[in-house]
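Deviation from plan, reported transparently: 5'-deoxyadenosine complex.
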Amino acid sequence: MKIYIETYGCQMNVCDSGKIVHLFANQGYQPTSDSRSADLIVINTCSVREKPELKLFSALGRYIPLKRQRPELVIAVGGCVAQQWGEKLQQRCPGLDIVFGTHQLDHLPRLVAEVRQSHKALSATDFLDCPGGLEVMARPVPDAVSAMVTIMQGCDNFCSYCIVPHVRGREYSRPSEAIIEEVRMLAASGIKEVMLLGQNVNSYGLKASGEISFAKLLNLVHEVEGIERIRFTTSHPKDMSDELIAAFATLPKLCPSLHLPMQAGSDVVLKRMGRGYTAASYLEKVEKLRRVVPDIALTTDIIVGFPGESEADFQQTLSMLEKVGYDQIYSFKYSIRPGTRAADYDDIVADEDKRDRLARCQALQDEISQAVLLAQVGKVVEVLVTGSSKRGEGEWSGRTPESRIVNFPAPVSAPAAVEIAAGDIYQVKIVKAFKHSLRGEVVVDAGS
Ligand code: 5AD
Ligand code: SF4
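Because the crystal trials were delayed, the predicted structure below was used instead.
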């Protein structure tokens, strides 16, 4: 039996898809990249931005007809769009066998078995106190260096533009013992880097009685032998505690890189977004972080064209980009999410203004990113090798602790016995900066 899985959206979905593949591997399914040879097709959807239904409907338009040649083919849709639409998705798309919500991931094998018996469409989208699937552990990909570990799910912030609290449900923190056990298992299987995942990791544990704080959880992960690097995402600036900022100073394995979504630079817009901070208080957090880790690499999310955003408001977003000097930004045109508070705001920004602002925002950031990368030339940095480079034979690729991509050739002077492999750590001198990556030369073989 073969499973084909298509994943849209965030790292959380990528992580969930890994768990689905794992669940079905236990049932004898092999993953395939060819949808036409699959016995089970799963589409893991995202509804955060753009027109998520369009992408899904077009995928279903391709896959449902495959059932004519393969009557035993089962098609399932999960994730945020599935949560929102429920069985209405099946009314709209006859032939779609299963709709499973964001708390139902671990029920998918049972749902597939039932559909194979009854040949009737099923949907399961209830929210649970403890989202199912959080305790499913994905088997690490062979030769992988990094792995994602979900530590919490859901969000209670209800930013006015955001669908996530509506489709992922309330914040739930996974027990710290289970998280540490998973990290230990990953380390034992050769994983060197863990990325702790959640919609708002900074509020980990706060609402679970007797649970430790996120900063304390980082301390425990830090103690796991074999783990060399720790990262986490996503953080909310308002919950970036002093205890967490201090962790960057005390935990050497905690990488000096942080994704800190700013969304907008204007206080008026931030207030209407319901973000709970001002541009000044955001900058204060950045300054605090930089006092602790002067070279911390920051990335952010930006929304342009939020209802009511004036040109002057937008200029303040540009000014924040200059003040902070992000490595990279992820910038989006605001798009209405039905059911959110901002969907009722009527001072809509014209699409051409949104497009124009997005282009200006990205052009400015391109210059900033380029300057950040150029400043790396001449420095010696630590690179964790992630695999061979796309550039071809003898070329390797890895990441610095700041998460910057570095490509480098295998050192010719290395002893013949030393072979570079994913998971090795090398000191690399940066010799050139490209638009999104760096090029370097190995200077000291620090071994693996
Ligand atoms: N429109 C545009 N961007 C959005 N995001 C979330 N909701 C919307 C929306 N309605 C962006 C935010 C968030 C990122 C994951 O997606 O920037 O941080
Ligand atoms: Fe959405 Fe805001 Fe929660 Fe992030 S913090 S998931 S933007 S509601």
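The mean pLDDT is 94. We consider this an acceptable substitute for the interim report.
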